[in-house]
Amino acid sequence: MVGLYEFKSRYEAVKAVETDKDKIIEDLMEEVKRLQEALDDEREEMDNQRMLVQAIKSNSKRYQCEIAEMKRIQFNDEFIQDGQKGGRSAARLLIQKVERYIQDVHHNETSNVQYKIRVYANVRGLARTYRDNNIISEEAIFGSFIQGFNMEDVLCDFVDAGDGKECSDVKIRAGKK
C-alpha cells in the first residue's frame, strides 16, 4: 500500500513537470509574439521600400522623358568657341543645373540620387555644322570642346554616336534599359 508521503512526493513531481510545461509554453508564446512583431516590422519596411522603388521608377521615367525632350538642345556658341575651356565651363554649368533640378524635385533626398550626364551627338556632322555656320573656324575646336567637357568631371560624357540620322536616338534608348 502506498502511503501519504509517497503520494505527496509523486504529486510534487507532477506539479514540477506541469510548472516546467507551463513555462515552456509561455516562453514559446513570447517568442512567437516577438517573431510576429519582427515579421510585421519587416513587412512594413518591405512595403515602404516597394513604394520608394515605384516612386523612383516613376521619377526616372519622367527624367528620361525630360532628357529625351532635351536632345535637340545645343550648347551656347560661346562654349563651343572657347574649345577645351568652353567644354569645361559647359560641363560645370550643366552639373550645377542638374544638381539644382534634383534638389528642387527631391528636396532633402539629394544625397541618395545618382546621376550621370551623357551627351550623344554626331560629332563629325556637328563640328562641320559649327564650322559651316562660322561659329568655329576649324572643326578641331569642337574636338577640344568635347575633350574639355569629358575631362571636367567623371559625371560628364560627350559621346560620338556616329553619323547616321538615328544614331543618337539608338544610344538614348539603349541607355534607358
UniProtKB/TrEMBL annotation:
Locate the DUF7923 domain: which residues? Answer: 73-174
Q: Which Pfam families match?
A: DUF7923
Which spans of this chain does the record mark as coiled coil? 25-59
- Keywords for the protein's UniProt record, in alphabetical order: Coiled coil
Taxonomic superkingdom: Eukaryota
Matching InterPro entries: DUF7923
Question: What's the protein name?
Answer: CCCH zinc finger DNA binding protein
Q: What is the lineage of its organism?
A: Eukaryota, Fungi, Dikarya, Ascomycota, Pezizomycotina
